[in-house]
Amino acid sequence: VNFEQVQSAEDFFVRRTGRLFFDTNSISEIRGAVMSDLQTYLKWNKKMIASENQRLDDLIYDATNYYEKELEAETV
Fold first, then answer.
1. What is the reported pTM?
2. What does the DSSP 8-state code read for residue 1?
3. How far apart are CA 57 and CA 72, in angstroms?
4. CB 52, CB 38: distance < 8 Å
5. C-alpha–C-alpha distance, residues 14 and 12, integer Å
6. What pLDDT score was predicted for residue 70?
């Protein structure tokens, strides 16, 4: 977390390790330890941990489910 300058659970599981796309099942095995380390190093409160866990759940769902139609990005 420290040496890779990780800023979020998404950052760790997608950009730093690639587990979301290449080893999704392993996330459940290490998720608790990773979130605990992120909480310690980044000084997250309970609200931030809940938000990060929800985001990670959404990413896992998105990576492991088939969509009939591609999702379209929102334009601002």
1. 0.83
2. -
3. 20
4. yes
5. 6
6. 75
